[in-house]
Amino acid sequence: MHDRLSEDSNHHLPQVDVAIVGAGMAGSIAARRLRQIGYRVVIVEKSRGVGGRVATRRMHDTHADLGLPAWSVQGKFMQGILTAISRREAIAPWTDTIYEFDGESFVKNTHWSPAYVSPAGINRIAKYLASGLEIWRQRRAVAIAPTPDRTWYIALEATGSDRSDATPMELTATAIVLATPAPQAVTLLETVNGHFSPHFLDTARSVEYDPCITEIAGYSPDKQGEILRRSPPWRAVRFPRDPVLASVSWESSKRTGDRAPVFVFHSSAAFAETYLDTNDLTLVAQALRDRASETLFPWLDRPEWWQVHRWRYAFCRRPHHGPLLASTQPAIVACAGDWCQDNTHLSHFSSIETALNSGDRAAFWVNQQLENRSFPPFVSLWKS
Ligand SMILES: Cc1cc2nc3c(=O)[nH]c(=O)nc-3n(C[C@H](O)[C@H](O)[C@H](O)COP(=O)(O)OP(=O)(O)OC[C@H]3O[C@@H](n4cnc5c(N)ncnc54)[C@H](O)[C@@H]3O)c2cc1C
């Protein structure tokens, strides 16, 4: 546990106005907003890439979206991003119908709005949002501590091969935004336990997430012809009542030119709870494919290659009801992300829109605590 640092101990550290932990959608939009009005902002991100759960993995001469599969326009943020990105690169409508398997047949989910994809991978959204921001990659925030002048000291650790001195291992900031799933924010907040109100910490601790195990599987090129001959109407199928499988995406249908089919299988939360920490994932991956092969194509259980990713915090099951969680004691800190649901909006947001809205609200709140500068109009967010 870190306590207040002495004034002398941190005068030589990099200093910023706002340090943001996490370069997911919430963190990136918060940084973009605050940078727009002239604050010096740094994002620290434990991974090599940006985007968090808006992730694309490259392998076997192809790529696959292993978190968010596509985006639909359900609010002003995703609409803004869609408009901005489509000015620069190809964005394609993917499907306007998600099918659900009800145990016997496939039914159309009529509540679904059209879904868009980037043929280069969904992570393009995150890269667009993060462009121009100062991001310290492969740096995990491991502890935060208030300083005597009511700023924050943030200790980092290297998570990858970048152990060079070029990216610092600590910094100070007048304000911090923790833009991570709540349990990861709690881990950091608990390093300063005793300085926050019990209500603040208890609210963050009350948030719960469901895990998910995701498998990407590639098949031989001869299966491509078979799919095209059968011409399935679906691009993605959900299995709302299945104990093993939650959804399947026909990943290679997002672009033309792939010679061989690629599918992505997402497990149910219950299945992931049981197998998240299993060492040997061979049987876990097989179980997902077996289930898909029973309902979609029989050969789905025999891929040429496969990879598994474990999402410990995939979907927020128990949110905080508010667009952010914030405290000015012992110094300025805001928490944001898809777990902060803004109930002032009448329409139901998707998780991704919730994350963006929350990051945006966190930026507004932090600015109010700092110098209360004027924000330019919303549309200018998408200009740079
Ligand atoms: C399989 C799957 C399918 C999904 N499908 C949909 C969908 O169909 N529709 C939808 O709306 N949403 C969907 N989502 C959810 C959506 O992707 C998320 O709601 C959204 O991306 C959350 O953004 P965020 O910025 O709040 O958090 P995250 O994306 O989790 O970003 C947090 C970032 O913080 C970083 N981080 C964490 N701790 C630290 C630390 N200590 N130091 C430094 N960095 C740290 C992480 O590496 C990450 O980059 C899906 C998610 C998954 C996993």
UniProtKB/TrEMBL annotation:
<dbReference type="Pfam" id="PF13450">
    <property type="entry name" value="NAD_binding_8"/>
</dbReference>
<feature type="domain" description="Amine oxidase">
    <location>
        <begin position="114"/>
        <end position="363"/>
    </location>
</feature>
<dbReference type="InterPro" id="IPR002937">
    <property type="entry name" value="Amino_oxidase"/>
</dbReference>
<dbReference type="InterPro" id="IPR036188">
    <property type="entry name" value="FAD/NAD-bd_sf"/>
</dbReference>
<protein>
    <submittedName>
        <fullName>NAD(P)-binding protein</fullName>
    </submittedName>
</protein>
<dbReference type="GO" id="GO:0016491">
    <property type="term" value="F:oxidoreductase activity"/>
</dbReference>
<dbReference type="Pfam" id="PF01593">
    <property type="entry name" value="Amino_oxidase"/>
</dbReference>
